[in-house]
Every structure is written in structure tokens, then in C-alpha cells.
């Protein structure tokens, strides 16, 4: 038996090390060239027991110039056996994951929430059909500007405003669906969370900042939350059912943070 000895000259060793380091640095800088994006649905609720909306998925457009050959659409399917969702239940912190995808590093310039054809609601125990006011409304387009960075994770929210989306005929025999949806990225906005002790008050809560007003309701436990708010001072107006009185106070929020309020106790109307 014998052993061979391999002797590398110094220049060769340095060249080998340089090649290894160079390849490693190149891999680290390029990464996978993608970002992970989660699409989540929340609800600004309306005065309904249930509101069942059929959701097919989300379609997104990447590229600032929509007419460019580089711009491309991608459909992300809502992969559930039953695609009908009771979005009236998405209150008090409820969130529905519509889908997620690894996307190329580019700007998301438009989002489409794609609806199906089967929608209905229940109000005061009665089931009513819910018809799209305009068939073109089955693809709800939202213009956005969300630049993606490599190896980052993003939560993109779609806020379905039921109160503004559902209209009834004067005799309340027919309900029409004209979807109103806004979008925001959680990392770029602020939040408010709270709880009202008197759950039976069925309070409506408004977060008001200048000309902008966002509305929500409490859930069965009295909890409520606002997401996608701008930074700064907001006036919270709590409007409960009788015999409770309205409550008004201010809350200041910060980007990327959730402001958690102390439990709110409503005052009763004083009888003469």
C-alpha cells in the first residue's frame, strides 16, 4: 500500500478559495429571487345574520406598466371543497386565508377578488338570495402599489365591506351584491383591538380620521378590531343599542403596531 500526496501551489489554493467564496456570495445575494405573499380576507360587517359569498380565488397583476410585456397575471385558487364563505363571521379578529404563493420580485399593481355565482344571506332567520348587481362585479379590481423584496414575507389583506356591498330593494324582497373591497398590507398600517363588556348592546364602532371612516361590529364576546388604519389619531365612536349611551374617545396608533384598549363599559341611559 502506498499513499499519494497532493501538493497544491499557493496560487492554486487562493484561486480555489476565491471560486468557492465567490459562488457562495453570489448565491446569498441572488437567493431564490422570490417573496412569500399571503392573501387574507377580513370583513367590515353589516346588519345580517349570515352572508355567504362564493369565492373562487385571487388574481394578481405584477409590473408597474400594465401594458408592458413584462406584466403578468397570476391566479391563486381558493382551494376548498366548498368555496362559499360566511364572511359575516370574520369580525373581532377573524381572518380567512385565501391562498399563498411565492412571487417574483416585482411590484403588485392590481388585485382581483374572483367571485362565483352562488351567494345568499340570512336576516332575521330568513334566507334571501343575493344577486350580483353587475355581472362584471364577479371580478373585483383593486389598484395597489405593493413592491416586493427578496426573501420577505407579506400579508396582503382584502377587507370586504358588507354594509356598503349589499343593497335591498324598497320592499326588501330582493338583495343585490355590489362588492366594496379595500386592500392593505399589514406591515404598512396600524390596528386597534378592544372589547365591550355589554355584549347585548350589539355595538357599531366607527374609527374616524379626517374624511376616512372605517366601521366594524362586536362579535359574540364583545370583541372588535380595526385593521388597515393609517397612522395617527383616530376618533372612536361607539354606537350601542338602547338603553346604552354612545361613547366617544380618541386613540393614537403607530405603523406596524396594534393598540389594545382596556375593556370598555358602556353607560346606561338615565331615566327621569
Could you please describe the fold and organization of this structure?
The chain has 272 residues and is mostly beta strands. It has two domains: 33-188, Immunoglobulin-like; 189-272, Carboxypeptidase-like, regulatory domain (Immunoglobulin-like), CATH 2.60.40. It contains two helices and 20 strands. Strands 2, 3, 4, 6, 7, 8, 9, 11 and 12 form a nine-stranded mixed sheet that branches. A hairpin with a 2-residue loop joins strand 7 (120-123) and strand 8 (126-132). The longest helix is centred in the first third of the chain and has 21 residues, at 10-30. The model is unreliable at 1-31 (pLDDT under 50).
Name a few traits of the molecule.
four-stranded mixed sheet; globular; disordered N terminus; nine-stranded mixed sheet; 272 residues; Immunoglobulin-like; 2 helices; single chain; 20 strands; mainly beta
Task: Write a brief caption for the model.
By secondary structure, the chain is mostly beta strands. 9% of the residues lie in helices and 49% in strands. The model is unreliable at 1-31 (pLDDT under 50).
